[in-house]
């Protein structure tokens, strides 16, 4: 995934669009990377 290597953060929408997958599938991919400690989840505060 290009966006993960280029930017210090990504969003589910970016990943879904880049991989041409649904939001649900992109969420699963990112969760898997988080569980493998390749990514860290940070919640955005509004």
Quaternary structure type: single chain
Structural class: mainly alpha
Largest sheet: none
Described by the principal axes of the CA atoms, the overall outline is globular
Low-confidence stretches: none
Structural commentary:
- The structure is a single chain.
- The protein has 46 residues and is an all-alpha fold.
- It has one domain.
- Helix content is 57%, strand content 0%.
- It contains 3 helices and no strands.
- Helix 2 packs across helix 3.
- The protein starts with a helix and ends in an 11-residue tail after the last helix.
- The mean pLDDT is 87.
Brief overview:
This protein has 46 residues and is mainly alpha-helical.
Topology, pairings included?
Elements: H1 2-6, H2 12-19, H3 23-35
Helix pairs in contact: 2-3
What attributes does this structure have?
46 residues
């Amino acid at each position: 995934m290009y966006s993960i290597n280029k930017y210090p953060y990504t969003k589910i929408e970016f990943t879904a669009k880049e991989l041409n997958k649904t939001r649900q599938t992109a969420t699963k991919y990112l969760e898997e990377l988080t569980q493998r400690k390749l990514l860290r989840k940070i919640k955005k505060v509004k």
